[in-house]
């Protein structure tokens, strides 16, 4: 079913899409998008994803889509795919595509993955928005995968860790969870906000602080989250000055995944 998608109010069976050659969505990535699992999608979570799209569209002064068409497209495609990506063009057009979960996801969730520190020049555009201009994270992830490494961590000009190419970072030490603050220039992930809110509601210690290269060395465990993979531990980080190792099977990781 990989050739089935929804575009501008129509269900289309094809593996190509027709766009004008001067379409800003094609030329500049002038779109915003959100991605979620269909199996666990509730009305509440769906609205959170739509709210993030609405915020970005308003902030960028673009046109809101016909949300009824978006909902119809999601409903049509949900039975066919494990993951849906809802893309909104600058002029309000909606494009909804689907794919399946990574075949090794369960293994990654249990055993963790290796990550590499990305080249400092690879920074995400308009970090508070999930825009179609995702070239820098795509390049960082491609470079990692070419070296049989599963993820890459984006950094700022000081070398502080920000986020992975696909999710928000979490670290644990001495009974407290840590995550980089939004002010550092990271995406306000849906999974991040859910985990953060639940930790606070359950009176767990959680702090939003900057992840400097010196500070991250003392973390016991780290991982990353998004609305597709939930939470994946990172057991090894390859940095320009050496390798850092973390506990992928730490009890705190099982606890936060259960949230």
UniProtKB/TrEMBL annotation:
**Example of a GO biological process term:** carboxylic acid biosynthetic process
Give the Gene Ontology MF terms in alphabetical order: lyase activity; transaminase activity
Keywords for this protein: Aminotransferase, Lyase, Transferase
InterPro entries reported for this sequence: Aminotrans_IV, Aminotransferase-like, BCAT-like_C, BCAT-like_N, Class-IV_PLP-Dep_Aminotrnsfr
Tell me if Lyase is a UniProt keyword of this record. yes
Q: Which domain of life is it from?
A: Bacteria
What Gene3D superfamilies does the record tag this protein with? 3.30.470.10, D-amino Acid Aminotransferase, subunit A, domain 2 (3.20.10.10)
Q: Where is the signal peptide?
A: none
Q: Name one Pfam family in it.
A: Aminotran_4
CC terms in the record's Gene Ontology section: cytosol
Would you identify the family this protein belongs to, as annotated?
Belongs to the class-IV pyridoxal-phosphate-dependent aminotransferase family.
Protein name, entry field: Branched-chain amino acid aminotransferase/4-amino-4-deoxychorismate lyase
Species: Chamaesiphon minutus (strain ATCC 27169 / PCC 6605)
